[in-house]
Structures are given as structure tokens and as C-alpha cells.
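Friendly challenge for the regulars: who can give me the C-alpha cells for this chain first? No prize, just bragging rights.
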Amino acid sequence: MSNPSLLILPGDGIGPEVMTEVRKIIDWYGAKRGLTFDVTEDLVGGCAYDAHGTPLTDETMEKAQSVDAVLLGAVGGPKYDNLDFSVKPERGLLRLRKEMDLYANLRPAQCFDALADFSSLKADVVGGLDIMIIRELTSGVYFGEPRGIHKEGNERVGVNTQRYTESEIARVARSAFELARRRNNKVCSMEKANVMESGVLWRQVVSEVHAAEYSDVELSHMYADAGAMQLTRWPKQFDVIVTDNLFGDLLSDLAAMLTGSLGMLPSASLGAPMANGRPKALYEPVHGSAPDIAGQGKANPIACILSFAMALRYSFDQGDEATRLEKAVEAVLADGLRTADLMGPEGGSPVSTAQMGDAIVKALDASL
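First reply, four minutes later:
Bragging rights claimed.
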């Protein structure tokens, strides 16, 4: 049987630095756990534009379609701000999501005990937090037609269309229910059914899928604005939250800051199963390219490392090994090691990007 395949796209800014630390983890699994990956590497974003005049070549897109999973670092930077919209670095990431049809975006918000005091919320509110937001990623108001800016009389009008089909809602609902079965068996669906027809349909379809296929999972509904309020009031009431593209964008960023640092947060974008049963998949840290600290050894590699842990769990059926890696991260943080973004009033031992990666490898060694 061939090794599972992984396409690495480090991207721009701090992307290559954090991905170097992930490569250490990948090498460790091959050497110490007999879990070997066929790894290829390519360009995406601004570096791809510099080399090829496009943020994602057709050849790289073909590679992404053929591998078992894609692991991406970050894209963008001020160097590319004045490019035409069609060739901005972010278009490479959007093309990957769209052409791979990655309709379910998984955004965990997990607060390690060692960092509970780092959040802007009280430690008892966020301590032990472990929730998952599933955002529909390929439809909704970001893709609906008509859209644009036009003149009506003497003024400009901006138009965006919120549009969802039953099948688009049903498939992301199934993703949420399936994931809940692997967690605490509880889903909260969020929309604005009180003022939006698309929200009415969303609630109806989620309820229908639940009744027909997942009645064993606890389902609740909440208006998205109330959900935002509840996430900041008592986030631990939730397990899995499923919502549309726009609300998912907002709520997942809100949930991200419950943990105190974007440098800690991974994500997965999943699509339909391939012929081998694995889902189309793209894994990436939530943080951006942070060009202001690129090349300085200040970047936190944990979000990218935890994105690889998500790949172990959701693409490669290695849940135990994913947990091993997550616990190694937790152990390093409990020992007080901190990259620059995690240094707060409570102190800690400052480490570089590479030193954090080395410490996590050492913690993996200690887990054997």
C-alpha cells in the first residue's frame, strides 16, 4: 500500500517558517511511528505570483486535486496590495477552496489550561474550552448572484445576494452531525430565520436532515446574533456549531479570540469523499502571513502544527496520533514555553519559532 500523499504550500510571510516546524513533526512520525507521507511542495499566493504571474498555477491546482490532503501556511502581504484583484495572493487560496469544493470549514476553538489567563475573558469562562465551528464555505452571500456596484439615479448601490440550495445546506449539516458523533453528540445550528428567508430554509433543512438521519444527536437552533452573545457569555455551553458562510466567518473569528491568540488556532476545509474514501481536504492555520515579523523567528508555529494534527485525525484516520501531538503541544505550554505572541503579564520562557518546534518534537519523544 502506498504512503498517504501530502502537498505542502508554505506561501508567504511567516508561512515558510511555521511550515519548517511542521516538517519536523512529519519527519518524526515517519522515524518514530512508522507513519510516512509522500510529501511534495509547491507555491501559492504572492510567491507564486512572483514566480509565475499567478497566485496558483494550473499545475499546482492539479497536484492539489490528486493528493490526499493539502497543508497551507499563509498568503499575502503589503507588497501585493496594488495588484489587480484577479491576481492577488488570496485568489490562490480561494481557487483551492472553490475548485476542490471544500464546503465544510472546521474551526476549533480550544483553550489550553496553561493559556487560560491569556484570554481577555475570565479564566473560568474559557478554561478547558473545546468547541468546533463548522462554516459552510462555498456558497452564501460571498458567492451569490447578482452582486456588484451599480448606479441607481444619482447614487451608487452595492448588491450582494445571500443564496443557498437545500443540498448545500444538507451536506454541511451532515458534516456537523457526523463530527458531533465523534465529540459530545451536540449540535447548535445558527442562522437568522427571524429576518432572512435563507435562514428559514437553513433551519428547515437542518431539522429535516436531523430527523431523518441523526436523531441520536442533540440539536438546537439559535439566531446568529444571539449565538455571538452566548459565545462571549458562556462558550462552554456549545460543542459543535454549524452555520452559513457569512455568520461562520464572523463567529469563528470571535471564537478564535476566546483562546487569546490567533497563533494557536488551526482549521480544516473538507469536501466530498474521494475514490479512496478520504475527503478532499485543505488544512491551514487561521493566522495570516504576518509580514511584519517574517524572517525574525518570532512566529508561533503551533497553529500550523495543530492543523497537521487535524489532518492526522480527519484525513488519515490517525486520531490517536493526533491526540498525541495535541498533548505534546499542551505539555510544552504547561512547561511555560512561549513564542512572542504568547508572552503576557504572567510571564513564561521566551522561545523562537524553531525552538518551539524542537520542544514539541522533544515532547513527542517523551510520549513514547
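The mean pLDDT is 95. The two ends are 26 Å apart (CA to CA). Your move, everyone else.
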